[in-house]
Design goal:
It comes from Camelina sativa (False flax). This is F-box/FBD/LRR-repeat protein At1g51370-like. This protein has 438 residues and is an alpha/beta fold. The protein has a domain of 134 residues. It has 12 helices and 18 strands. A 15-stranded parallel sheet has the order 1-2-3-4-5-6-8-10-12-13-14-15-16-17-18. A 3-stranded parallel sheet has the order 7-9-11. Strand 16, helix 11 and strand 17 form a beta-alpha-beta unit. The chain is globular. About 3% of the residues have low confidence.
């Protein structure tokens, strides 16, 4: 019996060891796929497990490294070159490099030449440049997602990204506006475009031409002239400097429109801008907008009649306190509104002037409060507004089918007690309404 017990224990020990090392018995290609879903740091750490695992991280089809995680530039270069040159025939599916190399020691150009021939699909490079991105990047036929941050682009005669669907360019320096147009026109299946522009004196491209028949999302941020020709566009987010031109040649009926307006020191009239977007904004279903342009849209009309957002279901709008008087008019212009986020913000035009509390008349009940409004969020980045409780009471008292009222506001400990006491006592038209205070 003793011998039988020992034999059982030995069998159990062997079985346990086999279970522990079962993952090492998997094909190397499958192990590489598992390591791909780990961070690069964790994937490299597995090299200490055994002799078999020592070099497996170099076969992983993805790399995500930051220069500042290494002790010095030489350690970073040694690590990167071991990965890039370990097996030139392997596939690099995804690559993200964050490099700060003011002395130009990194051989980024040769690295790019390597991974553009290795069927790369996702490339993100954050690079403080001492030289331009090499020309080989412009003809990478497998790229699906390209993100460049703080990079300098070289001028190229030919650009071809036949598979590129997402292109994000943040603070990229272009040799001229023609090169920027080539990047877009050379991407025939491009659907998602983000362009965040550097300050004008770092950039020779003064006019941003966006012409594409496949684009669905455009995100533009920068002080430059913008021309858009995108008939299939679904989502547009842009910051407009009123001293610049914003011209739409052809625009689809976007489901979401996010517009922010930045004034120069001297405010200029934006009637031309409003005229350009009026015909398209009326079909928008999701609108994020600030008080400046929203007020101008409501007031500007050739017929003098109130502008209508007949299809709008979601509205996220910034208001200065002085603009709250037009709130009932805005709600009246959105007969199908289901979700409304109102944020109280500072009014730069009132700087140094006597602050006057707005006299908001809540006598009328807009159609949306009766038939469609289900969610309201009130938030502010300014001190407490005296008429805030009146505003809250208005929505609770008149919103027939309201499901949630979210209050993202700050109160001192002394104010909180009075605030909750008054909030609890308010009449609610909708018995299903929940009030959430953050």
């Amino acid at each position: 019996m003793v011998g039988r017990k020992k034999r059982t224990q030995n069998c159990d020990k062997v079985s346990h060891e086999e279970d522990e090392d079962r993952i090492s018995q998997l094909p190397e290609s499958l192990i590489s796929e598992i390591l791909y879903h780990l961070s690069t740091k964790d994937a490299v750490t597995t090299s200490v497990l055994s002799t078999k695992w020592r070099y497996l991280w170099q076969w992983v089809p993805g790399l995500d490294v930051e220069f500042n995680t290494f002790s010095n530039i030489n350690a970073f270069m040694s690590f990167a070159e071991r990965f890039f040159y370990s097996n030139r025939g392997s596939w690099i599916r995804k690559l993200r490099l964050n490099i700060s190399d003011p002395f130009g020691k990194c051989d980024l150009n040769s690295w790019i030449d390597v991974f553009t021939t290795r069927r790369i699909q996702h490339l993100a490079v954050d690079y403080i440049p001492t030289s331009e991105i090499p020309l080989s990047i412009y003809t990478c036929k497998t790229l699906v997602h390209l993100q460049l941050v703080r990079a300098a682009l070289a001028e190229a005669e030919f650009v071809s990204f036949p598979c590129l669907k997402i292109m994000h360019l943040e603070d990229v320096i272009y040799p001229n506006e023609t090169m920027l147009e080539k990047l877009i026109s050379g991407s025939p299946v491009l659907e998602d475009l983000l362009i965040s522009r550097p300050y004008p004196w770092y950039d020779k491209a003064k006019v941003l031409q966006v012409r594409s028949h496949r684009l669905k999302r455009i995100d533009i941020d920068g002080s430059t002239e913008v021309v858009i020709n995108a008939p299939l566009l679904l989502c547009l987010r842009t910051m407009i400097y009123l001293t610049k031109n914003f011209k739409i040649i052809s625009l689809g009926f976007p489901t979401k429109l996010d517009i922010d307006v930045v004034f120069s020191k001297k405010k200029t009239c934006c009637k031309g801008l409003i005229h350009d977007i009026l015909t398209d904004i009326s079909r928008v279903r999701d609108l994020v907008i600030n008080n400046v342009i929203l007020k101008d849209i409501l007031l500007y009309s050739n017929s003098g009649q109130l502008f209508q957002f007949r299809d709008l279901s979601r509205l996220n709008a910034g208001f200065a306190k002085s603009d709250l008087e037009m709130l009932p008019t805005i709600l009246e212009s959105c007969p199908r509104l289901e979700s409304f986020t109102l944020e109280l913000v500072k009014d730069p035009s009132m700087c140094g002037k006597m602050k006057k509390e707005p006299n908001v008349m809540f006598s009328a009940v807009p159609q949306c409060l009766v038939s469609s409004l289900k969610f309201v969020e009130l938030k502010r980045s300014i001190p407490r507004y005296e008429g805030e409780m009146k505003l809250i009471r208005y929505f609770l008292k008149n919103s027939t089918i309201l499901e949630k009222l979210k209050l993202n506001v700050y109160y001192t400990k002394k104010e909180k007690c009075d605030f909750f006491t008054e909030l609890v006592s308010m009449t609610r038209c909708s018995s299903a309404c929940k009030v959430l205070v953050l």
